[in-house]
Amino acid sequence: MRSRTGDHMSEDRLLRLFHGMCLGVQALHSATPIALAHRDLKPANVLMSDDDCPVWMDFGSMGRARLDINRTSEALALQDLAAEKCSMPYRAPELFNVESHTSIDERIDIWSLGCCLYAMCFFRSPFEAAHERGDSVALAVLSGHVDFPEDSPYSGGVHSIIRTMLEVDSLQRPFIETVIQSVIDVASRAPNKA
């Protein structure tokens, strides 16, 4: 509905809702005895509670957050699983071409969260335009190039959070605790409270 009217939510509300989404992800990433990753975070998988709090749903893709990929067969199996279960415009770059002898961790969800925050701001994933044009979403994601509308109503702080989360190099991407702290910091300076 908001996308049809171009009605942007206030930065204060945006950050409050996104903070709640991050807390849900933090619960998965800090699960014991094994940390979990959702693996299909996208706006369509968020419900709003009666008290306007975001709640994640659709845990069919969820699995162990940290995986050591030692063989080509393991890499291909994870890549196939991601192709089947993870929505392409929100999928982390390392899941498009999984390499053997590598590790995957919960920061795949951080990438998806960054795409979600972008979609909350601008009504679609930063990589949906490539999909709509018939271009390769995988190449768009792997490029890591993200444009922000010139007339963005959001602060540079919000843009910075998105850029940090959409770091192609998964080892340079932040963990959820760092994202939460960034959201708190930017929210404390939010310009348009409503």
Automatic annotation (TrEMBL):
SMART domains: S_TKc (SM00220). InterPro entries: Kinase-like_dom_sf, Prot_kinase_dom, Ser/Thr-specific_kinases, Ser/Thr_kinase_AS. Gene3D superfamilies: Transferase(Phosphotransferase) domain 1. Its EC number is 2.7.11.1. PROSITE patterns: PROTEIN_KINASE_DOM (PS50011), PROTEIN_KINASE_ST (PS00108). It holds the Pfam family Pkinase. Coiled coil: none annotated. It comes from the Eukaryota. Keywords: ATP-binding, Kinase, Nucleotide-binding, Serine/threonine-protein kinase, Transferase. SUPFAM superfamilies: Protein kinase-like (PK-like). It catalyses: L-threonyl-[protein] + ATP = O-phospho-L-threonyl-[protein] + ADP + H(+); L-seryl-[protein] + ATP = O-phospho-L-seryl-[protein] + ADP + H(+). GO terms for cellular component: Golgi apparatus. This is non-specific serine/threonine protein kinase. Residues 1-184 form the Protein kinase domain. It is an enzyme of class 2 (transferase). One of its GO terms (molecular function) is ATP binding.
